[in-house]
């Protein structure tokens, strides 16, 4: 065997040993992630102290926790970048990367948008309306409406809200006639319902309601729930709240993303956002029961008098809603398209729910009102 032939195996051995050593060294060295953090700036349509802003932060935290260092959402309060009612444009134009609000706030762009929340929803509760949205065609209809008004966003609906009070007043509302000429605050298609009932409506943002009520610029107002109403200061300016109403009995929240920013995210981060929406929806529902019931008790301790809205006023709301639906359907083909879709779903789902669900109030009365 020649000298060169004998050297070849030795050279191969040394080469392999060096490669093995290099590999071992690489394994011993900690992996350094080269992934960049994507930061998204969100704004809510709520004051920083409101529980609704807290819900927005809860959603962001779920995304941030699951995404690790790859995605970070920062949530600013209403007005930090754009006015509360300009959130949709701010997100669509890229002034903001995303936002947290309600679809009814976009009512001025297309009246059909308020059907995600305003009105009796053919007897659906807010969770059923979310079921219609995700499984009954509502999501595609919402995308169609946004496209028709040249709004380029990605929308996620979540968080079914409890039924909202009829409103806060200086004195109890006993008859429909008591609403005649009253200066009142509400938003969305509820504006049309209260207008039909005779009120002069001013759709003020949440942070402006109580100051206006205190100064006498409005005579009555509704916002949403015991926690928000307490934090906003309603009990400081009036001690009368009328409970139960059909003006906004099916509402939910909306999480918006600028479409370009959302489309630029990798699939795994989009999946995290999707699952965070679902988790936040459940968490918000549970938190609402806990916090709203606590604050309802605190409002009573503060001397607030709660009254059930008379059935005559509730029936009048339904009659008013019928007139609003007929008028808006004649003016807006998309409005009628959404209503027809909701009606078909509600007839089936409502029949099932009304037949299957037991009367929980009966059991509660059995234990606490004997």
How does this model look, in words?
By secondary structure, the protein is of the alpha/beta class. The chain has a domain at 38-161 and 250-291: Bacterial extracellular solute-binding protein, family 7 (D-Maltodextrin-Binding Protein, domain 2). Helices cover 52% and strands 13% of the residues. The protein has 14 helices and eleven strands. It has helices at residues 3-28, 51-67, 87-93, 126-135, 138-148, 190-196, 206-214, 226-232, 234-237, 259-263, 267-301, 311-331, 333-356, 360-368, and strands at 38-44, 71-76, 98-101, 153-158, 167-169, 183-185, 200-201, 220-221, 240-243, 253-258, 305-308. A six-stranded mixed sheet has the order 7-6-8-5-9-11, with helices on both faces. Strands 2-1-3-10-4 form a five-stranded mixed sheet, with helices on both faces. Strand 6, helix 6 (190-196) and strand 7 form a beta-alpha-beta unit.
């Amino acid at each position: 065997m020649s000298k060169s032939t004998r050297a070849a195996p030795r050279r191969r051995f040394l080469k392999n040993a060096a490669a093995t050593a290099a590999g071992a060294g690489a394994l011993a060295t900690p992996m350094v992630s080269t992934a960049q953090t994507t930061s998204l700036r969100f704004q809510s349509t709520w004051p920083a102290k409101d529980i609704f802003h807290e819900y927005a932060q809860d959603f962001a935290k779920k995304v941030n926790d699951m995404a690790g260092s790859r995605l970070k959402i920062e949530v600013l309060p209403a007005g930090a970048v754009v006015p509360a009612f300009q959130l949709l444009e701010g997100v669509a134009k890229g002034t903001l990367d995303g936002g947290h609000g309600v679809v009814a706030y976009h009512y001025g762009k297309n009246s059909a948008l308020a059907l995600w929340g305003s009105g009796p929803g053919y007897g659906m509760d807010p969770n059923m309306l979310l079921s219609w949205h995700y499984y009954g065609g509502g999501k595609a209809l919402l995308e169609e409406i946004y496209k028709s008004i040249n709004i380029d966003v990605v929308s996620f609906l979540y968080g079914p809200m409890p039924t909202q009070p009829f409103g806060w007043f200086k004195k109890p509302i006993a008859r429909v006639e008591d609403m005649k000429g009253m200066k009142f605050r509400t938003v969305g298609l509820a504006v049309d319902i209260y207008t039909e009932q005779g009120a002069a409506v001013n759709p003020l943002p949440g942070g402006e309601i109580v100051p206006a009520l205190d100064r006498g610029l409005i005579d009555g107002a509704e916002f949403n729930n015991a926690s928000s109403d307490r934090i906003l200061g309603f009990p400081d300016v009036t001690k009368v709240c009328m409970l139960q109403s059909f003006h906004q009995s099916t509402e939910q929240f909306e999480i918006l993303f600028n479409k370009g920013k959302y489309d630029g995210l990798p699939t795994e981060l989009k999946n995290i956002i999707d699952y965070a929406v679902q988790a936040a929806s459940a968490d918000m529902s549970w938190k609402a029961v806990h916090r709203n019931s606590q604050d309802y008790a605190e409002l009573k301790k503060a001397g607030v008098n709660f009254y059930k809205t008379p059935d005559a006023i509730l029936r009048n709301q339904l009659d008013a809603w019928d007139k609003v639906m007929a008028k808006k359907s004649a003016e807006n083909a998309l409005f009628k398209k959404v209503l027809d879709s909701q009606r078909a779903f509600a007839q089936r789902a409502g029949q099932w729910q009304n037949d299957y669900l037991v009367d929980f109030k009966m059991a509660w009365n059995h234990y606490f009102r004997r």
